[in-house]
């Protein structure tokens, strides 16, 4: 499988850096961060121009919340795999993301490299199927 292209969407500099560092530590997969966005509108621009395989998405962001951003992302590319990584993972917003089609909803407070790797492994079949459609 080619590199998994990842878009990270989070308004927190610390969280974005931690996710990038965590992705580098995942063994056995070629993962390439192809875009980083601080808010939803920027993420949608990158979605339209970068075709990521996977989006790591926060919910609590300025200008556009993560739920709205997820809805708009899925309009751009219904086959993109989305993993929500947020402090709000166990809220109504997290449940709504699952209903919309997020493949996993992870709590930032409980996030480990192993848990992130496990979530990415779980979405690989969707990523491979989406690539076959294109």
Describe this structure in words.
The structure is a single chain. The protein is globular. Helix 2 (40-50) runs parallel beside helix 3 and helix 3 packs parallel to helix 4 (92-100). The chain has a five-stranded parallel sheet with strand order 2-1-3-4-5, sandwiched between helices. Helices cover 48% and strands 20% of the residues. It has 134 residues and is an alpha/beta fold. It is built from five helices and five strands. The longest helix is centred in the last third of the chain and has 21 residues, at 113-133. The model has no long low-confidence stretch (mean pLDDT 89).
State the gist of this model.
This protein has 134 residues and is α/β, with parallel strands linked by helices. It is 48% helix and 20% strand.
Highlighted features:
single chain, 134 residues, alpha/beta, 5 helices, 48% helix
The quaternary state of the protein chains shown equals single chain
Query: What helical percentage do the residues reach?
Result: 40-55%
Query: How many β strands by DSSP?
Result: 5
Shape type: globular
Quickly count the helices: 5
**Mean pLDDT value:** 89
Structural class: alpha/beta
Topology of helices and strands:
Blueprint: E1 4-9, H1 13-24, E2 31-37, H2 40-50, E3 54-57, H3 66-76, E4 81-86, H4 92-100, E5 104-107, H5 113-133
Helix pairs in contact: 2-3, 3-4
């Amino acid at each position: 499988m080619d590199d998994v292209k990842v878009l990270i969407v989070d308004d927190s500099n610390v969280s974005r850096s931690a996710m990038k560092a965590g992705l580098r530590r995942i063994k056995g997969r070629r993962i390439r961060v192809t875009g980083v966005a601080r808010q939803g509108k920027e993420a949608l621009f990158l979605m339209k121009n970068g075709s990521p395989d996977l989006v790591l998405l926060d919910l609590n962001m300025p200008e556009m919340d993560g739920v709205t951003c997820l809805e708009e992302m899925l309009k751009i590319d219904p086959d993109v795999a989305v993993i929500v990584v947020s402090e709000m993972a166990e809220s109504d917003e997290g449940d709504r993301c699952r209903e919309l089609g997020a493949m996993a909803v992870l709590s930032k407070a409980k996030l480990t490299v192993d848990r992130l790797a496990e979530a990415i492994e779980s979405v690989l079949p969707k990523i491979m199927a989406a690539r076959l459609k294109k």
